[in-house]
Write a structure and sequence with these properties.
Layout lengths: L10 H10 L1 E4 L5 H25 L3 E2 L2 E2 L3 E5 L8 H5 L2 H10 L4 E11 L7 E4 L13 E6 L10 E3 L2 H4 L8 E2 L6 E2 L8 E2 L7 E5 L4 E3 L8 E9 L16 E5 L2 E2 L4
Antiparallel strand pairs: 1-12, 2-3, 4-5, 5-14, 5-15, 6-13, 7-12, 7-14, 8-11, 8-13, 9-10, 15-16
């Protein structure tokens, strides 16, 4: 039985998520799914390069050729990637964090190229929405081995920062980042092997550093909400609302 088909989330993980806003699963992704994540990243970067060539530019939004790539909401374009996004492992994580109903809310690759990549400031994912909503869960997958040198993610436990509600974020005019924490706490860095997961609430502060190594650093992020998220006073969806779990059972079709 592969790692992805086993229930790796324990009662201790559930309790840590409730009390601290995060937990880490080392080597949780099966070798088959990890290879899919790597192949999909390469494919989607190639597709982005083709679009850059078509437009005659070296950057699209916050992606810059040969420096960093943020590729969002493209999982259906990569063969096999949906099998990871809607895997039994992701179902277990959703049940343990947001409950028996789940929707895919957002997904993206974040690839920082060798000796490039800006750090990403302390923020809550909910801070990028900027309006009250039911918190969702983020699953940050280490596609490569993660170190402080290649810009891994760090999280601030709720007991450390003393904040577990949405706070106002300020946009950094130089980077475009939204920043919600300006204190001195350094957080918990995810020094983990490839195939590991950092699972945290959308209200948990986290950041990532620059990649100072000579190899690309790739992460894949999926986010799941307990209900569709709509723009305030509107029926317009924020991002995605792909059904995943209903009453604990997987209903996703892919």
């Amino acid at each position: 039985m592969s790692a992805a088909s086993q229930s790796l989330v324990t009662d201790e993980h559930r309790l840590q998520f409730q009390e601290e806003g995060y937990f880490i699963l080392e080597r949780a992704i099966s070798p088959e799914h990890l290879q899919i994540l790597r192949d999909s990243c390469d494919l989607l970067i190639d597709v982005m390069h083709q679009e850059m060539d078509r437009l005659g530019t070296d950057h699209i939004h916050i992606s810059h050729r040969g420096r960093r790539y943020h590729i969002a909401k493209q999982f259906e374009q990569a063969p096999g990637l949906a099998a990871y996004v809607f895997s039994p492992l992701m179902a277990d994580i959703c049940r343990a964090t947001i409950g028996s109903n789940a929707f895919l809310f957002y997904e993206q690759y974040v690839a920082k190229c060798a000796e490039h990549g800006m750090p990403f400031s302390w923020h809550q994912d909910s801070g990028y929405l900027g309006f009250p909503h039911r918190p969702y869960v983020t699953v940050w997958a280490a596609v490569d081995e993660m170190t402080e040198e290649n810009g891994t993610a760090s999280v601030l436990p709720w007991s450390t920062v003393g904040i577990r509600t949405l706070v106002e974020h300020v946009r950094n005019p130089e980077t475009g980042d939204k920043v919600g924490y300006f204190g001195r706490e350094q957080g918990v860095p995810a020094i983990v092997p490839a195939g590991s997961l950092v699972v945290f609430s959308s209200l948990t502060f986290h950041r990532s550093g620059a990649n100072t190594t000579n190899r690309m650093r790739r992460a894949y992020v999926t986010q799941y909400s307990a209900e569709p998220v709509y723009q305030p006073a509107s029926e317009q969806l924020m991002h995605l609302a792909h059904p995943f779990l209903r009453d604990g059972a997987v209903v996703a079709e892919f």
